[in-house]
Each structure stands twice: as C-alpha cells, then as structure tokens.
Specification:
The complex is a heterodimer of chains A (about 525) and B (about 180).
Chain A: H1 2-23, H2 26-44, H3 50-57, H4 66-91, H5 100-111, H6 115-150, H7 153-168, H8 175-189, E1 192-193, E2 200-201, H9 215-234, H10 250-259, H11 261-276, H12 281-296, H13 308-332, H14 338-349, H15 363-393, H16 399-415, H17 422-439, H18 445-468, H19 476-521
Antiparallel strand pairs in A: 1-2
Helix pairs in contact in A: 1-15, 2-4, 2-15, 3-4, 3-14, 4-5, 4-6, 4-13, 4-14, 4-15, 5-6, 5-13, 6-10, 6-11, 6-13, 6-15, 7-8, 7-12, 7-18, 7-19, 8-18, 9-16, 9-17, 10-11, 11-12, 11-13, 12-13, 16-17
Chain B: H1 14-34, H2 39-76, H3 98-106, H4 109-129, H5 131-145, H6 151-172
The chains are: A mainly alpha (about 525), B mainly alpha (about 180).
Chain lengths: ~525, ~180
C-alpha cells in the first residue's frame, strides 16, 4: 500500500496549495483585509473582545462562500489576539482577556522605557506562535482525534486543577496566599444559577447575579483599574522619559525572539495543547505558558517585573492557542474556546458540518483556515510594526491626558460585556480588590484564573462523581496529573530550601576558613 | 535558625492578618450559606469553602509563628539595624509592582481624595446622563482642572473623544452604550 499512501499525500499537498489559491482570490483577500482591519482596532481597544466582535459580525457572512466567510471572520479573530498585546504592553490594559499575561511583564518593560523591545518581541513571537499553530493544525487533525476522545471528565477536572496550581506556584513565597485567592475566585465563579440543580447560589436575591459574574468586567477592573488610579495619583506618563530609549529596542526585541526560541516553541506548544482541550481557552493557557516559562527560566525572579521571556511566552501562546482551539471545533464540532464557539455558528451559516466532512470533502476549507491564520498574522504584524512609532509615542503622553480615554475604555469595556450597568459596579469592585491585592502582596492572577476555571472544574467534578463515584481517583491518568500537581505546588518551597542551603553553605565554609585562619594566628 | 540575630524575621503586617481574617470569614459564611441547598448544588461550594478556610487558617497560623519569631529576634538583637526585620516587598512575589505600591503608598490624602472624587464623578455621571454627555464633559473638566490644559486643547480633546465614541461605537459597531437614567 505504500503507493496508495504516497498518492494520498500528494493529494493532500495538492489540496493544501489549492486552498491557498482560494484564499488569494481578490474578493476573498479583500474580505480578509477588512476582517484584519476590524480585528486590529478591536484588539487594540480594551474590553471589546474578539469573540464579542465575531458575534457582531456573524450576520454579515450570510450569502458568502465558506472560504470567504472564514477569511473575514477568522482573519478578524486571530488578529485581535496579536494586537490585543499592544495595549497590554503600552497601557497595562489587556486589549483582550487573553492578553492579560502580557501585561505582567510587557507593561513593566514599558515603564522602564523598553516599550519598543517589548512590542518587537511580543509581535514577532505572536506571529511565530500563529505559524506554529497553523502548521500543527494542518498536520494534526487526523492524528489527535483518538487522544481527545480518550479523555473523560476526571482527566479534564484534574487538568483544570493542574492549570490552577501552575498559576498559584507563580506567587513566589506567597503560595498560600495564592491558594486563598484561588479559592475566593472559585466562589466568585459559583455565583449564579447552579447548572445541576437550578438553584440560585450566592445571588442574595439579586436578579443580575443569576447569570453569574462576567469575566470581562473582572479582568478590566483587576488589571486596568489600579493602573488608571496610579496615573491619576502620579499624573506622570506611562513610560518614564528619563529612562526611556523609545524605539531603540525593537530590533533587540526581534532578536530576543530568536535568542529565546525554545520559550517561543514551548509556549506555542502549550497554547496548542490547552487550546485543543474544550473549554479551557486562552485565559488559562497564557498563564500556564507563563508559569512554565518562569519555572524553566534562569532568571525566574525577573518575572512580573519586566522579563522578556515572560513577554515572549505570553505572546507566542496567545496566538498558537487559536489554532489549538480550532482542532476540536473542526474535527468534532466541540469548540475549544468562546471564540471558536461563535465561529461554529459560521459553519452552520455557510452550510458546513463540523466533523469528518471537514477532513474529507471540505478539506480545502480546513486548509484555507490554516493559510488565513498565517497570512492574517503576517499582515497584522507588518502593519503593527509600521505604526509602532506612533503607538509608542502614546506612552509619553502625560497621564492626565490618558485618564479620560482610559476611564472611557474601563466603563465601556465593562458595560459592553452584557450591556448592564451592574457590570460597571463589578468592575469597580474588582478594581478595589486589585488595589488592595497590590498593596498587600496578595496575587491577583490565581483569583482571576479560578473565576475562569471554577464552572468547568465543578462540571467535571460533578460528572466524574456521577459516572464513577470516587473510584476515578485511582485511575492512573488521574494519579499522574495529581503527582504533577503536587510537584508544581511544592516546587517553590523546594527551590527556596535549595537556595537557602546553597546560600548557607558558602557562609559555613567562610566561617570555618576564618576559624582556621584565627587558629593559625594563635 | 529563624529568629537568630543573623537573619532578621520580618514583622507581621496588620493588613495581611486582617485580609486573612476576612477571607476566613468569607469561606465560613460561604460554607454555612451552602447548607440550605440540595446536595447537587452544595457539593462543589462545600469543598471550595472548606479548602479556602483551611488555607486561611494555615496562613493565620503562619502569621502567629512569624510574630513569635520576630519578637524572639527583636529580643536577641535589640541593638541591630532598626530597619532590619521590617517587612520588605518580596522580590519573588508575583506581580510585585513596586511603582504601583510606591505611588499608592506615597500619595497624600488630598491626592487620594481628588483621584477617587474624579472617578466617582465619572461613573455617577455615566449612570445619570449616559456616555455621550459624560465623556466630553468629563474630559474637558478633568483636563482643565487636573491636567491644567488650555481651553482650546481641552475642548478639542473633549470634542474628538465624544465624536469618535459616537461614530465608532454607536454608528459603526452598534455597541450599546450606557444611556443614563435621565
């Protein structure tokens, strides 16, 4: 059968390049550029998420050919992930919820006057992540099906806890504070109508709380609220003029992506892997990639204070995860993220059935998605680099001039989540929590991630218990993930002990040397 | 050994203890509140609140031990550097944003009151009269008073902000905006 396999591979390559031709048709290309333009603006504007815009633009694809529809929608969606990083780096306000991890190191770099370097690194690593993700998408769809189907609720439950433990371990010596914040986040995630029994939980007779607390106002308040207040108090520009080298670092940022290529590859791989798992989404994977980059870094202490590796990990992961999220969407009709769920609507509108058909008779559409992801990212990054000088100048505008603009974005970002003014109160509450957390060193990220993961964790735990009682706890896969969790949770303590010992050893040697010297003197 | 004169033990901050106590209270209340629900609904909240309460208790015990060590260290080294033993930001802390902490810690009461007043004015106005009146008004007033900008610059900023908001969000993207109660 080797002849048949070879023929099959040639046919696959033929379809791959045929789909490139379809994407490059003038009308399709124009639609993709229109999508990229919208995605660029939406990505830069904090709060207005890619999935929300996808939903808003979905009605426009009626009557389009499938490849045209995906050129428009997918082009827009993947670009929001790239340009969302720009506001994260320049203003400390995540353009997208999935760009929150970029804030942790990108914004401190901007404050140090290294905005150019951070943007150069995050934009190029985003493109690299997108290309790696697209290649993976092209290669993996037929291979990964049995693996994803082999996972059950117990494994998914353990994976959510593992993701949470990764992020808590980022809290340095404050691991216990991290776990407390994570538990608080879980409770926040439980607010609303319980999906199992239909009981309103922690709603305190407020109808608004029945739908739960939306993640967008929480993200905006937790991360952007404190920054705006800082600008109002200090009245300085976001970047410190005295230490700034403005655009001089772009080339260095680009070189950084090649110097730390393994961080880019590993973070992309994590993005793809987590993206594949339905419901885990980008908000989770970026922090797992960030945590992994910190744990494997030679300079973990720089994370959170302007580490280029942190910026690269977040950037690469952010774009690779979209390709991962498309894998279960295309192959099984199971959306890997909120954006992919909205995109699933486009399948139905254009008359496509997700599943085996996408790997056989509609394979050209699947491969066109691969090309769209690659081309859209390259165009977006090229435009971003062209406009970088203007974008970076924004960070030197006096703080007082940015305050009205940022307050508008805070208000709109929170309000547009559900078009409900109560979301603004949630955002303000989250801002207060964020400020208190910064002031007293209580980590914010575990809280946020627990809010994202809480509902999922409950669903998977409940299903595991309903299906297997407690016997699932002794499954080898569950025990394996559990062991990884314990290792990740204890690692900060082990590392601290090792450091303490290595610091104590030279001191002891010095002391014994001194005793010897004094002995000789005697 | 912790608490020896050679290695200062940081003091326990009252704010940290207060936050841990509040967290403990939240988890206990969450557990008690969950008891009124059927098993399917209280299953997960119970586990989360018990785990959260256990972590909070552990943290409080840790603060108690730290307080004892700190006192022991103070007794052993009363004449050492008075700055030693005070709580310093942990360089390993996640997101230890020194500039944020510095600005929050050094701002005067007057500055805090002014900043919080502006924020309150913005959001109250947003609630009362909606975004299209609030944004130009707030931008103009804030730039003139807090930013000490010229009349023309402040007016231009306010006009552009209002126009862009109306065109981009309301006309092009059809994003619903807070309309105000009046």
């Amino acid at each position: 059968m080797p002849g048949f396999r070879l023929k099959g591979r040639f046919a696959l390559f033929g379809t791959l390049f045929e789909s490139l031709g379809q994407v490059l048709e003038p009308e399709t290309l124009l639609l993709m550029l229109a999508g990229i333009a919208i995605g660029f603006v939406v990505g830069v504007l904090p709060g207005l998420g890619g999935s929300v815009t996808l939903a808003l633009m979905l009605p426009f694809v009626f009557g389009m050919e499938p490849v045209q529809a995906f050129a428009f929608l997918l082009g827009m969606w993947v670009v929001t992930a790239t340009t969302g990083d720009i506001t994260s780096v320049l203003f400390g306000v995540p353009g997208e919820a999935t760009s929150a991890a970029t804030v942790l190191d990108g914004y401190p770099m901007t404050k140090r006057g290294e905005a150019g370097r951070a943007l150069g690194a995050v934009l190029l690593s985003s493109t690299q992540g997108a290309i790696l993700g697209a290649i993976f998408l092209a290669l993996s769809v037929p291979i990964l099906r049995p693996l994803v189907l082999a996972f059950g609720p117990p494994e998914f439950f353990m994976l959510t806890l593992l993701g949470l433990t990764f992020v808590v371990s980022l809290s340095g010596r404050n691991v216990l504070k991290g776990f407390i914040m994570a538990a608080l986040g879980m409770l926040v995630a439980l607010v609303g109508i319980d999906p199992q029994a239909g009981v309103p939980r922690y709603t305190f007779d407020q109808l608004y709380l029945w739908d739960g607390i939306d993640i967008v106002p929480l993200v905006v308040g937790l991360f952007a609220g404190a920054e705006v207040l800082q600008l109002m108090l200090s009245k300085s520009s976001i970047a410190n003029r005295e230490t700034s080298s403005e655009l001089s670092g772009i080339g260095q940022g680009i070189r950084d992506t090649f110097r730390h290529w393994s961080v880019v590859v590993r973070s992309s791989a994590i993005g793809i892997g987590i993206g594949i798992i339905p419901g885990m989404g980008g908000s989770v994977s970026q922090f797992i990639a960030y945590g992994h980059a910190q744990q494997t870094s030679k300079h973990p202490e720089e994370f959170g204070k302007g580490s280029i590796e942190g910026v690269l990990a977040a950037g690469a992961n952010n774009n690779a995860k979209d390709a991962g999220a498309l894998v279960p969407t295309i192959a099984f009709g199971i959306p890997g993220s909120v954006g992919a769920a909205v995109l699933l609507g486009a399948f139905l509108i254009t008359g496509l059935n997700p599943g085996p058909e996408m790997l056989t008779e509609n394979l050209d559409v699947t491969f066109s998605m691969v090309w769209i992801m690659v081309l859209a990212n390259i165009v977006a990054v090229a435009v971003s680099f062209l406009l970088l000088r203007q974008l970076i100048k924004l960070t030197f505008i006096p703080g007082t001039w940015l305050v009205p603009f940022l307050l508008i974005l805070l208000g709109i970002g929170a309000y547009t989540a559900n078009n409900n003014f109560n979301d603004i109160f949630v955002m303000l509450g989250a801002a207060v929590l964020g400020i208190v957390a910064i002031q007293w060193d209580w980590p914010r990220v575990p809280f946020l991630l627990a809010v994202v993961l809480g509902g999922l964790a409950e669903r998977y735990l409940f299903l595991s218990h309903e299906l297997h009682g407690w016997s699932w706890l002794s499954e080898p896969s569950v025990l394996g993930i559990g062991a990884a969790m314990v290792f990740v949770a204890l690692w900060p303590y082990v590392r601290a002990i090792l450091r303490w010992r290595s610091a104590a050893a030279p001191a002891e040697v010095e002391e014994s040397d001194r005793e010897k010297v004094s002995g000789v003197g005697e | 050994m912790r608490g020896s004169a050679a290695e200062p033990v940081p003091a326990v901050r009252g704010g940290d203890v207060l936050i841990a106590l509040i967290m403990l209270a939240v988890f206990v209340l969450a557990y008690v509140y969950a008891q009124q629900w059927p098993f399917r609904a209280r299953f997960f909240p119970e586990y989360v609140s018990v785990a959260g309460a256990a972590f909070a208790v552990l943290k409080l015990v840790g603060y108690g031990v730290q307080l004892r060590w700190h006192r022991a260290w103070n007794r052993q080294a009363p004449e050492s550097d008075p700055a030693a033993g005070k709580t310093e930001p942990d360089p390993e802390d996640d997101q230890a944003d020194y500039s944020l902490e510095y600005v929050f810690g050094t701002a005067t009461r007057r500055e805090w009151a002014a900043a919080l007043g502006w924020i309150a004015a913005f959001f109250v106005s947003l609630w009362l009269v909606g975004v299209f009146i609030t944004v130009p008004l707030f931008a103009f007033a804030y730039l003139r008073i807090a930013g000490k900008a010229g009349w023309l610059a402040a007016a231009a900023y306010a006009a552009v902000a209002g126009a862009v908001l109306w065109l981009a969000f309301y006309q092009l993207l059809y994003v619903p905006m807070p309309a105000g109660v009046f």
